[in-house]
Amino acid sequence: TAAVGQYSRAYYLVFQPLGNYLSSALTNVVFATLSRIQDDLTRLRRAYLSLMSLGALIVFPLCVGMAVAATQLVAVVLGPQWGPAASLVPWFALAGGCHVASQLSQSLAEARAELNRSVAVQLVYLIGLALLILLAIPLQARGVWVIAAAVAIAELLRYVGYLILARRVLRLRWAEIWRAHFPAAFASAGVGLAIASAGWALAGAPSLAVLAVQITAGALALAICIRICPVADARAELWLRLTSAGL
Fold first, then answer.
1. How far apart are CA 164 and CA 171, in angstroms?
2. pLDDT tens for residues 195-231?
3. Dist. CA 13–CA 17, nearest whole Å
4. Could you tell me which of 31, 235, 48, 171 has the C-alpha nearest to residue 113?
5. CA–CA gap between residue 109 and residue 219 (Å, rounded)
6. In this structure, are residues 21 and 99 in contact, taking their beta carbons and an 8 Å threshold?
7. Least confident of 28-37, 38-47, 131-140, 192-201
8. Read out DSSP for 204-232?
9. Residue 98 and residue 117: Cα distance in Å, rounded?
């Protein structure tokens, strides 16, 4: 019962902001945008790559930050009695990031009325999740983290499945998909390194102070990584959208 409680708190700590709030906000806008241009394949391709690039640039560095700062995050938000949940947060951060990114590609499939293919991806995900949990059950003596790992791997597989679906629907090259993800990968590495360094430098300090410094370091690292990223596409798209919004 105690292990299930730790699992539950770690899950909601990550999925409440990512799955319930961020995912809903993004997909509501994305679906309407893509639906309006569903018959113009060139514009649809360009819009999808732009949305995927910017969405990944927001989501994955955030998830990496939550994973690296898991100990302080759990201590401040949940309290010290929930310490064991910190070992589950990195797995759920991976799952949450892939879940949100999958929702973007699922919106593309729905906008193009590719419902059968989308259902096929979801079915494969459910089967994969069930198999992974069955494989994890005999290992439960190692800790409840094996179930969290199964959930994370299943979400990663669903994300890959939706990328394959998007590639076929839009006739994309793998190089284009990788180029759209590179800024997020670059920024995630920078954010993770900055937050880990801040935690190491302030080892032994109160958790609230450490978390505050880690958030600041992560935000600065994200801004710097966007500015110096070798692939300028995401930077140009971000600048365009901020300018059009009057920001």
1. 10
2. 999 999 998 899 999 999 999 999 999 999 999 988 8
3. 7
4. 31
5. 33
6. no
7. 28-37
8. TS-HHHHHHHHHHHHHHHHHHHHHH-S--
9. 19
Q: State how far the Cα of 25 lies from the Cα of 130, in Å rounded to an integer.
A: 29
| In the predicted structure, residue 149 carries a pLDDT above the cut 90 | yes
Buried b (16+ CB within 10 A) or exposed e, 126-160: eebbeebeeebeeeeeeebbbbbbbbbbbbbbbbe
Question: In angstroms, rounded to a whole number, what is the distance separating the alpha carbons of residues 24 and 37?
Answer: 21
24: Cβ contacts below 8 Å, ≥ 6 apart: none
CA distance 61 to 152: 16
Question: Phi-psi region for residue 172, left (φ > 0), alpha (ψ -120 to 50) or beta?
Answer: beta
AA identity, residue 195: I
Share of the chain above pLDDT 70, in %: 100
- Quote the tokens at residue 106: 């699922």
- Structure token pair of residue 160: 């890959």
- What DSSP string runs through 132-161? HHHHHGGGGGG-THHHHHHHHHHHHHHHHH
At residue 64's C-alpha, the angle toward residues 60 and 66, to 5°, is 115
